[in-house]
Amino acid sequence: MRSHNERHVASRIGWLRAAVLGANDGLVSTASLVVGVAAASSGRDEVLVAGVAALVAGAMSMAAGEFVSVSSQADAEAADLAKETRELAEEPEKELAELAAIFVSRGVELETAEAVARQLSAHDALGAHAREELGISTLTAARPIQAAFASAASFAAGAVLPLLTAMIAPEAHLSAVVSGATLACLAVLGTIGAGAGGASPLKPALRVMFWGALALAATAGIGSLVGAVV
């Protein structure tokens, strides 16, 4: 029998979600802050200090938030698995019938469903119930540390781009150059995320560019107002 070596998008869903979210957040939030501070008639040094502070604080915040969020998911999964373990130990026949009923509900004949349920239970009863009843598998299981590192690293990577642009852009046109570079990077990020997720790239790219442009415009407007008042 040939081994099953296909790789599917679902195997990347845990870190992919955190990485795309982190990179997008790092790029948009840092670029928006840079543009807002620049619009307030601040010099390049002030802009860069604000940008670096946003990078460090944002990366730590993303890591902490993702860790807490995914840890909650992991705790819920662990509680469900513990409950299922108890039920398998106390009422194995009831759980066997429950597993067979799941297969019947999916269109499998009762006799075949019962045979499959017995074979799966003999091999790994908890694993079978985790997949079929709870929807928990090794592909989609919560991994808090992995998600936290992916979020922090991707946020920092996204935040570096507007900072580098701010360092080399003409100071008189800093806001415009950073905004243009950010929108271009968002288009690339949307395309990469769509490709990694197996989707068409056009709609995701336009989506992230729209929200990025909205954030840049809002912070630029606020920065101009603050600069005019001060």
Tally of contiguous helical segments:
7
Major beta-sheet overview = none
The quaternary organization reads as: single chain
The radius of gyration computed from the alpha-carbon positions, rounded to a whole number of angstroms, is 25 Å
Provide the number of structural domains.
1
| SSE run | HHHHHHH
Task: Kindly state the number of beta strands.
Answer: 0
Q: What portion of residues belong to β-strands? A: under 5%
Which stretches of 5+ consecutive residues score pLDDT under 50? Answer: none
Distance between the termini: 75 Å
Give the integer mean of the pLDDT values.
Answer: 81
Helix content: over 70%
Structural class: mainly alpha
**Overall 3D geometry?**
elongated
